[in-house]
Fold:
Amino acid sequence: MLAEKGEGMYDFAIVGGGIVGLSTGVALSKHYPGAQIVVLEKEAGWGEHQTGHNSGVIHSGIYYKPGSLKARFALEGSRSMIDFCQEHGIEHEICGKVIVATNPEELLLLDNLYQRGLDNGLGINKIGYGELKEIEPHVNGLAAIRVPMAGIVNYKQVCETFASIIERQGGALHLNTKVGNIVESENEAAIETNRGTFYSRFLINCAGLHSDRVAHMGGVNTQLKIVPFRGEYYELKPEKRYLVKHLIYPVPNPAFPFLGVHFTRMIGGHVEAGPNAVLSFKREGYKKTDFNLKDFTEVMTYPGFWKLASKYWKEGLEECVRSFSKEAFVRSLQQLIPEIQSDDLEPAPAGVRAQALKMDGSLVDDFHMIAGRNSIHVCNAPSPAATASIQIGKAIIERIPDQRHLKAQAIS
Ligand SMILES: Cc1cc2nc3c(=O)[nH]c(=O)nc-3n(C[C@H](O)[C@H](O)[C@H](O)COP(=O)(O)OP(=O)(O)OC[C@H]3O[C@@H](n4cnc5c(N)ncnc54)[C@H](O)[C@@H]3O)c2cc1C
Structure:
């Protein structure tokens, strides 16, 4: 369907049909019943990028700085996500997880993490060697944090349900529709796509790996760049799944934004190991050989990247080694489960994280939204944004200036 000037004027246009865009669509249709909403997604299906390539974990919120949006939204969002799955019959499981210290140096970090979890309001407990062995008999560890409320779900199924709710409420859903330019004027945004121009009073950019570019199209200076970090996985062969009973995580390096390779039981019964975190030479580059000159050049000419690289060159190098050497990957996994062998693992599809990086080389830690004239741009929604997506959608609505004409419509 093509929207011509003067007809098809929408109240809200959402760019990006990942879990954040779709959850925002659901929140808008609840908050403004009767509003004209359109979702524009360039792929042929929903949740085809970060959302459809993630670990499927419903995070508890233990890792994040107390008071941050990540901490608040993960805690509230995980409950909302579980309620949503229950209400809509979406398969999920609250299987719980353990975060395991495997050497004495990690014990202090484990204590700090435990305290952070308590500060974030979580009902977690610390366990020793004996209890850990009861829960996860194949895991090697000195001590662990048990996080009973962590769970798993298939976020693509959640996206399908979000999309059908938007449609039922009268929203317009457009797949295969790539936004190429945005012209924001006083009262509307003209959104140019490969399928014609859509007009909307308000625009919400949830374009994930392309969110900085979509913001720039709308004339917003984001002062950041999205840097793609690929996360590669292996899958445990079916006869080895018994080694993993729950979700098994290492103690993360607090200076690094990624959680370290871990074991995740997935909906469907399989078990994945990963992800690592390597710079991708293409924003949607799922294979090691994927390369896009524009994406690569943008990163290489961005001063923030070189500042980041000079700080984390050692971790970056280790991640690269782990990417190219299965043996190195297996060695990391063996710290958690010593009996895992290279032959127990088969390569599994990778994901790419959209991580915002500032000019000064610092990674944007928290979820980050930027207001335009008649727009909001979600420019950093990395993990746990799938868990927190319902809360992020609500937070976006709170940031939209009051749409009085729509409220009047809803009341009348
Ligand atoms: C490897 C990995 C593991 C993760 N594990 C977890 C986990 O276990 N739990 C968790 O909570 N989070 C996890 N995350 C994070 C989570 O997946 C993301 O935070 C979340 O999916 C972000 O959703 P999104 O809608 O912002 O982005 P996306 O899902 O990437 O959606 C953005 C959409 O915008 C579309 N788009 C982009 N540009 C345009 C354009 N110009 N026109 C139209 N459409 C456009 C894209 O096609 C895409 O569909 C993980 C992420 C990765 C990569």
Q: What stands out?
A: The two ends are 29 Å apart (CA to CA). Residues 252 and 259 are 5 Å apart (CA to CA).
